[in-house]
Design a protein that fits this description.
- The chain is elongated, with a radius of gyration of 34 Å.
- 56% of the residues lie in helices and 15% in strands.
- The chain has four helices and four strands, in the order H-H-H-E-E-H-E-E.
- The strands form two sheets. A two-stranded antiparallel ribbon has the order 1-2. A two-stranded antiparallel ribbon has the order 3-4.
- It has a domain of 75 residues.
- Helix 3 packs antiparallel against helix 4.
- With 144 residues, the protein is α+β, with helices and mostly antiparallel strands.
């Protein structure tokens, strides 16, 4: 019986769990690539959802900041020590101001994104169900 390199490779790789695809077949040089599918959303769908989320979270942070600022002690305490005079304010005042600024910074862009995204999404939905004039008759077209 003659020894051929192909049958020798076949025997070697028969015992191996995962053979190297580059050496098994001269035709197949690369390992197979997994196909990944990307989910496509209609225009304005993600913009609308991100705007809605930003608006709701920003409004919550804004209201929370107003509550924290309102409950803070707003008096300024002055301490005199041997090294100098120090003024101290309740840290809730600064936290409340930062929360109000952050909440406003989230709510305003959120409203803009929500309204523009909803407009784009509704325009897309209207285009999907449209009347089409073909010649002498009117027909209703629905695409999905």
């Amino acid at each position: 019986m003659l020894y051929s390199p192909i049958s020798g490779l076949a025997q070697v790789y028969a015992y191996a769990k995962q053979p190297d695809p580059a050496t098994v077949s001269p035709v197949r040089l690369k390992a197979p690539q997994n196909v990944t599918y990307k989910i496509t959303y209609p225009p304005g769908f993600r913009m609308r959802n991100v705007g809605r989320t930003l608006t709701i979270l920003g409004a919550g942070v804004l209201i929370g900041g107003i509550v924290v600022f309102h409950n803070a002690d707003k008096t300024i305490y002055t301490y005199q020590t041997s090294t100098g005079t120090y003024n101290e304010v309740d840290p809730k005042v600064a936290l409340g101001v930062l929360m109000v600024m952050g909440g406003t910074g989230m709510t305003v862009p959120g409203i803009i994104l929500w309204s523009k995204g909803a407009r784009k999404f509704n325009r897309y939905l209207e285009q999907q169900t449209a009347c089409v004039f073909n010649g002498t008759s009117v027909s209703l077209q629905y695409r999905f």
